[in-house]
Amino acid sequence: KDIQTGEYAKSFIIENRAGAPTLQSRRRLTAEHQIEQVGGKLRAMMPWIAKNKLVDQSKN
């Protein structure tokens, strides 16, 4: 319904103009989650994975 009325687009634009605080907060919380911490350690033990990496999280 929010998409059909345009409310989603309006809130998306406002959020981005404000520097995307909700998005940044959710990304930070996700990065701090235990599964992400363990995953990072596991990936660090497998260097062949990093060489085929498609996305650089420091940039994206």
UniProtKB/TrEMBL annotation:
Taxonomic lineage of the native organism: Bacteria, Pseudomonadati, Pseudomonadota, Betaproteobacteria, Burkholderiales
**Which example biological process does GO assign this protein?**
isoleucine biosynthetic process
UniProt KW keywords: Amino-acid biosynthesis, Branched-chain amino acid biosynthesis, Oxidoreductase
InterPro entries hit by this protein:
6-PGluconate_DH-like_C_sf, KARI_C
Top enzyme class of this protein? oxidoreductase
A GO MF term: ketol-acid reductoisomerase activity
**Gene3D superfamilies, from UniProt?**
6.10.240.10
UniProt similarity note = Belongs to the ketol-acid reductoisomerase family.
Q: Would I find Oxidoreductase among this entry's keywords? A: yes
One Pfam family for this entry, by name? Answer: KARI_C
**Name the UniProt record assigns to this protein:** Ketol-acid reductoisomerase (NADP(+))
EC nos: 1.1.1.86
Q: Where is the KARI C-terminal knotted domain?
A: 1-49
Q: Determine the domain of life of the protein's source.
A: Bacteria
